[in-house]
Write a structure and sequence with these properties.
Length: 98
């Protein structure tokens, strides 16, 4: 994060090698930025990360904290945007992206 934003950081939490979040506090709004990497071949980690992120989003919404989730989901959000092949068997598998 750029040094000019440091003064707004209230806390940073790293839960695993795949997850980190930062709470930024401004005069009128709090923002939780969650950065994730979902490994493509580890179903259990995928599931746990999604559950943790959904839990964090709900907790922060109750506290009126805005949430931004960014990172590499290793999944597709839109089959039509992701690929040209209409016969492809790939499908969206992450409930987090639904």
């Amino acid at each position: 994060m750029n040094k000019s934003w440091e003064k707004y950081i209230e806390k940073i939490m790293r839960c695993s090698n795949y997850y980190i979040d930062a709470l930024l506090v401004f005069k009128k709004v709090k923002i939780m930025i969650i950065v994730i990497y979902i490994p493509p071949n580890d179903k259990e980690t995928k599931k746990l990360l999604q559950q943790h992120i959904i839990k964090k989003i709900r907790e922060n919404e109750r506290k009126n904290i805005k949430v931004i989730v960014i990172g590499d989901f290793n999944d597709i959000h839109s089959k039509t945007l992701d690929q040209n092949n209409k016969e492809s068997k790939r499908k969206q598998s992450l409930p987090l992206l639904a």
